[in-house]
Amino acid sequence: MNQKNTDDLRQELMHSPNLDEFLSDNRENFSNESVPEVLNRILQSKNISKSVLAKQSGISEVYLHQIFAGKRNPSRNRLLCLCYGLGASIDETQELLKLCGVAQLYSASRRDAIIIYGLAHGINLFEINDKLFAEDEETLF
Fold first, then answer.
1. Model pTM above 0.70
2. pLDDT of the residue at 120
């Protein structure tokens, strides 16, 4: 069976007369990946170590290991720092933000536009943080 996308699921949900039936019929379409699982998947695809990630993210190794162990729930800013450290794509970043229950990046927000630009153009975290500061926007750390 093909995986349904969010729009397909939303349409089906809105037209479903029975929630239990909808949930049962779509069991394999719901995301079951945890934050540490998504982070590990992205980390492996980027082929970098956690110590390099900590350095590139401006996050202590202890805190990083707690996130990967599921013992800490990072803030949106810390998640964005991790995405910069991972060299994550915009899609990977949006997926992680959504999974963590925080606001995804929004191009109509000046601050988010700067962050998106940095991700899309491979600008490192520290340069983007400087740009945010120079533009009187809240920095990531």
1. yes
2. 96
> How big is the chain, counted in residues?
141
CB crowding 14-44: b at 16 or more within 10 Å, else e? eeeeeeeeeeeeeeeeeeeeebeebbeebbe
Instruction: Determine contact, residues 79/68, Cβ cutoff 8 Å.
Output: no
Exposure letters 87-102 (e unless 16+ CB within 10 A, then b): bbeeebbbbbbebbeb
- Phi, psi of 10, deg, nearest 5: -60, -45
What residues contact residue 127 under an 8 Å CB cut-off, 6+ apart? 118
What distance in Å separates the CA atoms of residue 130 and residue 132, rounded to the nearest whole number?
5
**Encoded tokens for 108:** 């109509």
- H or E segment to which residue 45 belongs: helix 35-46
Average pLDDT (48-52) is 94
Residue 80 vs residues 57, 64, 100: alpha-carbon distances, Å: 9, 13, 11
State whether residue 136 is helix, strand or coil: coil
